[in-house]
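Quick review question:
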């Protein structure tokens, strides 16, 4: 732990092993406060209507605290969730008591009955960690879908990552100010990239900071297509949840819509 004083604010620099960072479940919704969950959910429902089998059974991989699931349930879906973090699943169950939640790894999950739609929002497909696990995730999703079912997720193209680009937002919560900052980092080779994340919590002019790098799988969109196409018909859209446009082949973020053969 390090301490410093800067412009009238006292800072405490804390390693990522601190309890605040080790269990993000209590801060997950704050960290994602600027995300339009309804817009994302509505867009994927439209994609499912266009490409899918019109069924209403839905599974959300890496569901976190369940905000997307809430919107799917409210629009007539029978939705369930899967995550590796039990405290987040506990919060998801409070938010969505109608849903069933499972503590499983999305790279090797199994289901009791097949689904019509499987989603993986917020670039969480990259939590697979490496190409081998990503391939296993794709196989698991294929096995868990009905014929004509849709696997939909968003992804980032490793070769178009700007290591100097970050997103930052500030939230007031229970007398403290939280500043969340995140950005991708890719070394330029191999199948590993990182999501760099920092949290600042300021209370009465005392600021605590936590920093960490989340290991993620790095993949090009061409490589991703090669992994998907033995199992799915693949269509790639621009990363815009307000309007549906085909991917222009130059932007570094995209939405993948994959229909089970």
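Suggested answer, residue by residue:
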């Amino acid at each position: 732990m390090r301490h410093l004083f800067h412009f009238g604010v006292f800072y405490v620099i804390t390693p990522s092993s601190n309890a605040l960072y080790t269990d993000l479940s209590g801060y997950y919704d704050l960290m994602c406060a600027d995300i339009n969950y309804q817009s994302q959910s509505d867009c994927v429902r439209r994609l499912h209507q266009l490409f899918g089998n019109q069924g209403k059974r839905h599974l959300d991989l890496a569901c976190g605290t369940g905000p997307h699931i809430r919107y799917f349930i409210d629009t007539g879906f029978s939705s369930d969730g899967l995550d590796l973090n039990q405290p987040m699943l506990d919060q998801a169950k409070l938010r969505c008591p109608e849903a069933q939640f499972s503590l499983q790894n999305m790279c090797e999950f199994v289901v009791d009955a097949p689904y019509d739609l499987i989603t993986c929002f917020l670039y969480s497909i990259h939590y697979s960690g490496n190409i081998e696990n990503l391939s296993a995730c794709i196989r698991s999703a294929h096995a868990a879908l009905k014929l004509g079912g849709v696997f939909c997720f968003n992804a980032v193209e490793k070769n178009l990552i700007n290591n100097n680009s970050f997103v930052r937002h500030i939230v007031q919560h229970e007398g403290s100010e939280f500043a969340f900052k995140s950005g991708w980092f890719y070394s330029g080779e191999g199948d590993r990239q990182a999501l760099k994340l920092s949290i600042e919590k300021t209370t009465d002019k005392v600021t605590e900071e936590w920093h960490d790098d989340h290991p993620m799988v790095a993949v090009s969109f061409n490589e991703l297509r090669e992994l998907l196409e033995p199992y799915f018909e693949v269509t790639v859209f621009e990363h815009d949840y307000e309007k549906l446009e085909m991917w222009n082949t130059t932007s570094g973020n995209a939405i993948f819509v994959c229909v089970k053969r």
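Why it works: Residues 29-158+218-260 form a domain with the Rossmann fold fold (CATH 3.40.50.150). Residues 1-22 have pLDDT under 50 and may be disordered.
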